[in-house]
Amino acid sequence: MLIRGRLMYLIAAVITMAAGLASRHFGGMLPVFLHEHAGDALWAGMVYFGIRMIWISRSRVWAIMFGVIFSSAIEFSQMIQTPWLNELRSTMFGALILGRGFLVVDLIRYTVGIMCMFVLDHYFLSNRRS
């Protein structure tokens, strides 16, 4: 049952990651609101599913809190501007994982993204595990 649950969260994380990458790549085709906010919200949603996959026996509330703290820590780390860290952020993977510049609105996007994935988890994923 744990393996099945972990696999389900892995698949959810991969789908969420693909949706986030698609929102960046095809952003011009999306409504402006989605283009501006979806990528960050989906990134945090992927973090939530990753946390659920790794710590499956923990509560969803714990995953929400850890996800918000983790995502916020990444965002606040963008205030640190050292040459080696900026060099890492200048790569595609570095920018996708660490971001580039601190924005307060990103903290809101992360929280909303995590809460949306919590709702999906609560009503669709967790109920299917048994």
Q: What features would you describe in this structure?
A:
Keywords: Membrane, Transmembrane, Transmembrane helix. The chain crosses the membrane at residues 7-26, 38-55, 62-80, 92-120. InterPro entries: DUF2809. This is DUF2809 domain-containing protein. It comes from Paenibacillus xylanilyticus. The mean pLDDT is 94. The chain has one domain (2-128). It has 6 helices and no strands. It has 130 residues and is mostly helical. Helix 1 packs antiparallel against helix 2 (32-54) and helix 2 crosses helix 6. It is globular and about 45 Å long.
Describe this structure in a few short sentences.
The chain is mostly helical and 130 residues long. It has helices at 2-25, 32-54, 60-77, 83-89, 92-98, 104-125.
List the helices and strands and how they pair.
Layout: H1 2-25, H2 32-54, H3 60-77, H4 83-89, H5 92-98, H6 104-125
Helix pairs in contact: 1-2, 2-3, 2-6, 3-6
Quantity of strands, as a count: 0
Based on helices, strands and strand pairing, what is the structural class? mainly alpha
Helix content: over 70%
Tell the overall outline.
Answer: globular
Distance between the termini: 8 Å
Keywords: Membrane, Transmembrane, Transmembrane helix
Pfam families: DUF2809
Organism: Paenibacillus xylanilyticus
Protein name: DUF2809 domain-containing protein
List keywords for this structure.
130 residues; transmembrane; mainly alpha; membrane; DUF2809 domain-containing protein; single chain; 6 helices; 78% helix; globular; transmembrane helix
